């Protein structure tokens, strides 16, 4: 790389991802300045690593949030302004509306995911594989076009051993599918929808009455196999319980509903993509910035003890290069005034 960066890959214990540092300096201000001098380097490193990049030592961004915003802009033409896209105001950074705050303390008060049942695997490990581990998704897949890249800063992460973020390499997972499965999912589309639409698997199983959806909330189809617009490589593009439409989906053209043929295929694919060999477990250190590509990875949050611990994380979302399949499309997710 031209900008004086040092890239170590893969991430520890994983088959993909990388850690990026500056060779001659430390800290967020130096990193952002160097990244802006060589604006191709970080996006290229992200692509070369299969879609997950860790930048340690970025804690100065917590005092200077504009540094996070400047770094985000290198990953695409549009950084989402959450004040303009209908996010609840308590979840948006008060001064920087491009920052979405994920926190268990007021005013955000977001609860952590539940513990898996049982909490550990038979081997005493952190469960990562679906369906033991739940919550796997790719950000905002209920939008067309969907976003490209998310940046997640550990402002105040919880101590290691809980509150991890899990990542799955959907490119490697696709490549490892049996040929018959690849043929079966060729051209297949999933139907994605936000969890507030009450079309989650658990909602449909519980017999909840679906509410009428406004145009910008409607389920959106997405290719199950997505060609990455930068690398050209195919990757599985899926979510599970909370972000697929379990009334009309999860797949177009297959028997719908939470117990049908489509459900069986989704369970099979989700269990495959989250096999431990495709997963990286990120244990947070304050100041870690983890950047992921939603076009070729899935992720999931894990439980932490929200009664005793504070957790404050900041996220930005970058879009603008979803690939030719979305060319020229209006944004499905903007409410028409
Ligand atoms: Fe997410």
UniProtKB/TrEMBL annotation:
InterPro entries (alphabetical): TauD-like_sf (IPR042098), TauD/TfdA-like (IPR003819), TfdA_dioxygenase (IPR051178)
EC number in record: 1.14.11.-
SUPFAM superfamilies in alphabetical order: Clavaminate synthase-like
Keywords assigned: Dioxygenase, Iron, Metal-binding, Oxidoreductase
Annotated segments matching region Disordered: 189-221
Similarity comment: family membership: Belongs to the TfdA dioxygenase family.
Name of this protein: TauD/TfdA family dioxygenase
